[in-house]
Amino acid sequence: MGQFITFEGIEGSGKTTQIRMAGKYLKRHHIPFLITSEPGGTPLGRKIRKILLNRDSYGICAEAEVLLFSAARVQHVRDVISPALSEGKTVLCDRFSDSTLVYQGLGRGLDHDFIKGLNDFTSAGLKPDLTIVFDLPIEIGLRRAMERMRLAVSAAPDRFEGEDLEFHRKIREGYLLLAKQEPERFRIIDSAKDVISINREVCSYLKGIYARKT
Question: Integer distance in angstroms from the first to the last C-alpha of the chain?
Fold first, then answer.
């Protein structure tokens, strides 16, 4: 089985940039890998992503939201993640079930045990070998997200970027709480640092997981 590594963090934390750089590291070391993301990764997942992130979908209730994410995940695990791991590939995933615990649990206020059970079902018991959380003050993250939109000539933030500061504060605190509960799986990186320094830290964690494997 391959290694399953997830990248998590608040909006604008830089995880998407870092997952691409991690892929380049694996390629240099001739390690077969796959980069994927949630919601997305499959045709169904990409359609669900459009619904969930669309600014016109603000009326989606928390319960519908978590079920849409779950529908995307179960297809993603079955069609993409599990087959790649079975082939011995390292899977780098931009968000996974921890996002659901944090965003729909703490952020939306849904029951933790309900979401945990839903995550266990949709992921078929699959759990990351390593989860890297990119942490920084929410004001910096949102400023970065706005700058990214400006450069992409995007008119407005998506549904999650457009939430209030209290929502984003809960998300950040949620990730730090999960990391405290599972220190053996989580690694926290200060993503307020420069991109190269962050990448070096990511690569050191990747080296560590392959050292444990051997």
Answer: 13
What lies within 8 Å, CB to CB, of 79 at 6+ separation is 41, 42
Number of domains in the chain: 1
Token pair, residue 150, equals 């400006």
pLDDT of residue 213: 64
HSE, CB side, 13 Å, CA atoms: give it for residue 150: 6
Cβ neighbours, 10 Å, residue 75:
18
Predicted TM-score of the model (pTM): 0.91
Q: For the CA atoms of the chain, what is the radius of gyration?
A: 16
Residue 108 lies in domain: 4-213
> In 3D, which of 80, 84, 76 has the Cα closest to residue 39?
76
Q: What is the CATH number of the domain that holds 53?
A: 3.40.50.300
d(Cα 178, Cα 209) in Å, to the nearest integer?
A: 20
